[in-house]
Design brief:
- The structure is a single chain.
- This protein is an alpha/beta fold.
- The protein folds into 3 domains: 85 residues, Arc Repressor Mutant, subunit A (Orthogonal Bundle), CATH 1.10.10.10; 124 residues, Aspartate Aminotransferase, domain 1 (Alpha-Beta Complex), CATH 3.90.1150.10; 235 residues, Type I PLP-dependent aspartate aminotransferase-like (Major domain) (Aspartate Aminotransferase, domain 2), CATH 3.40.640.
- Helix content is 39%, strand content 14%.
- It is built from 16 helices and 17 strands.
- The longest helix is centred in the last third of the chain and has 28 residues.
- The relative contact order is 0.12.
- It binds 4'-deoxy-4'-aminopyridoxal-5'-phosphate (PMP).
- In the C-terminal section; belongs to the class-I pyridoxal-phosphate-dependent aminotransferase family.
- This is PLP-dependent aminotransferase family protein.
- Keywords: Aminotransferase, DNA-binding, Pyridoxal phosphate, Transcription, Transcription regulation, Transferase.
Length: 485
């Protein structure tokens, strides 16, 4: 959808329709509106430009006569030409052709919609996997930035593995999770998603298979598949991923296992300590490397989660990832990967070819957050606030959903994995919610099979919005029950 925030000037000596023609020509000419772009319908354009519809028609007729746009019946008016495409040698001569060519697959349509609608006014975000602005530690962040502004003496590119000072601090910090790793085995990444991208691009063979929990966050992206790797889903029970299922699915294409053992996204499952030990033994025996994604570890509520796989990994088979995104601020884009030095060197080399390193300012800020002790102090308070939000949200669910859904009570992280009792069309439900001003994360985004789950997040929306939005969701499900089947 085009964003048009321009209007012709009524007091100008140039006719209104001519100003509109010039405006649209400029947009096409400078490449902002490319070939294939659809213009709003005439009625809409008249509203945007605050002119009569006849003025719009006059302008569009001229652009048509110039061969720049074409009416396509119900599909509206589309840009069909620009100077560049007239000169281009490709028969298609437009970007549409290129857009479909790249290696990285597009997001799922549901995610594309979520990514856009999240920023509209008056939308209630019931699924967002992010801390609410209400939970942002504004004062502490100010302190951190004021301290680093006195410390920073230059802002050059950093080493391939990231700011040494930050890696030294992380090397100390992770002792808390019983992980021993020297700064040379740590790579700073621009968010842990980048770690997955780097792993995918740098160490996996196209045609190989990655085993992942079913359901899993990673299924909602195409990080692995875009580089020619297939995902295979492995079921879980209450203790985590099922080991006999891993064995059943192993073959000579299997390259690694990706797991979120602590508060699996989206189900909240915590892998038990025994299962972790058995998994590590199995993977060591089968020579199957593991990616341990520990993004949510710090967000426990009642008790500290079991030890990381990495802390018990004596053979270097675990690539461990963590991030500040879930516990502090995703906008910092700071995460880290820990693994055997040769792998970290390889990932660092590819990272240098990708972006020359994560933002140095963010790296200094992350170092200051952890080193100063502010991070620990903040986490203590955050856990209490998240627990309160969880408890309130469970109460809301009990009030509005107890006869139409089932859910778990998470012991940490952000999500409640709620399963609807009836088999309704979840895609239709998603669109109906969007129309009604609420955004949900349907479970199908994370799964290999159809499911009737919704990932409810209690971390983002205000309590008031959670109350209002969840009631509305319950109403939509109840009222639309028949035509959503
Ligand atoms: N891993 C998991 C399990 C996540 O849920 C997310 C964010 N949704 C990420 C990684 C990516 O986080 P970031 O790139 O912001 O560190």
């Amino acid at each position: 959808m085009l964003n048009i925030d321009w209007k012709p000037q009524r007091n100008s000596s140039t006719a209104l329709y001519r100003q509109i023609v010039d405006y649209i020509k400029e947009k096409i000419g400078n490449g902002e509106w490319t070939v294939g772009t659809r213009l709003p319908v005439q009625r809409e354009l008249a509203k945007i430009f605050e002119v009569n519809r006849s003025t719009v028609i006059e302008a569009l007729d001229e652009l048509k006569a110039d061969g720049l746009i074409e009416g396509r019946g119900k599909k509206g008016t589309v840009i069909i030409n620009n100077t560049w495409s007239l000169m281009a040698s490709t028969p298609a001569g437009n970007w549409e052709h290129y857009i479909k060519n790249g290696i990285q697959q597009p997001n799922l349509p549901t995610i594309q919609i979520i990514n856009k609608l999240e920023y509209s006014d008056n939308i209630i975000r019931l699924g967002t996997g992010e801390l609410s602005p209400e939970l942002f530690p504004e004062e502490m962040m100010k302190n951190v930035f004021s301290t680093i502004s006195n410390k920073i003496k230059s802002l050059g590119y950093e080493r391939p593995k990231g700011l040494l000072y930050l890696r030294e601090i992380i090397s100390q910090h992770i002792k808390k999770f019983h992980i021993n790793a020297s700064p040379s085995s740590i790579l700073i990444v621009s968010g842990s998603l980048q770690a997955l991208q780097l792993i995918s691009m740098s160490i996996l063979k196209p045609g190989s298979t990655v085993l992942v929990e079913k359901p899993s966050y990673i299924k909602s992206l195409h990080v692995f598949e875009s580089w020619g790797t297939k995902l295979k889903g492995i079921s879980m029970d209450k203790d985590g991923v099922k080991l006999n299922e891993i064995l059943k699915n192993l073959d000579n294409t299997t390259s690694l296992l990706y797991t979120i053992p602590t508060f699996n996204n989206p189900t909240g499952t915590i892998m038990s300590q025994d299962r972790r030990d058995d998994l590590l033994n199995l993977c060591t025996r089968e020579r199957l490397p593991i990616i341990e994604d520990d993004a949510y570890r710090e967000l426990w509520m009642e008790e500290i989660p079991p030890d990381t796989l990495k802390s018990r990994d004596k053979n270097g088979i675990v690539l461990y990832m963590n991030t500040l995104s879930k516990s502090l601020a995703p906008g910092m884009r700071i995460g880290w990967v820990i693994g055997p030095e040769a792998v970290i060197e390889r990932l660092g080399d590819v990272k240098m070819q990708t972006d020359y390193g994560a933002s140095s300012i963010s790296q200094y800020a992350a170092a200051e957050w952890i080193k100063s002790g502010l991070y620990e102090a903040y986490l203590k308070k955050l856990r209490r606030k998240l627990k309160l939000r969880r408890d309130i949200t469970i109460k809301i669910l009990e009030k509005y959903f107890s006869d139409i859904a089932l859910w778990n009570i998470p012991k940490g992280s952000f999500y409640i994995w709620m399963r609807l009792n009836s088999k309704i069309n979840m895609t239709k439900l998603f669109y109906r919610c969007c129309k009604n001003g609420i955004l949900i994360n349907p479970g199908y985004m994370y799964d290999f099979n159809t499911n009737y789950n919704i990932r409810i997040s209690y971390s983002y929306a205000s309590i008031q919005d959670l109350q209002f939005g969840l009631k509305k969701l319950s109403d939509i499900i109840r009222n639309s029950h028949f035509d959503l089947e």
